[in-house]
Design brief:
102 residues; mainly alpha
Amino acid sequence: MLINFSQRRRKTKAKRVSEAQIVAILKQQQTGLTVAQIIRQHGISEVTFYNWKSKYGSMQVADLKRLKDLEEDNGRIKKMYAELSLENEVIKEAFQKSGMTC
């Protein structure tokens, strides 16, 4: 039986792990477990572990909440800026078509 690439990918698709779970996994190393034990226990690769460590290594769960809130605020502000920029361009074009200058 042949398995096409898309079916194979579905089988190996990574499971989602929350940031709080990632922090808890990384803290296991501080308790004395080796990286090999941790990655075997959680079914992750060594590369994934070290990527998480570089991103979340010094964070606590409270820091993650603050980071998530800041990212949401940043997204909201970027959206507002994009909308205002578009509105500004429309107004400029309207003034140019009417012969008025800004």
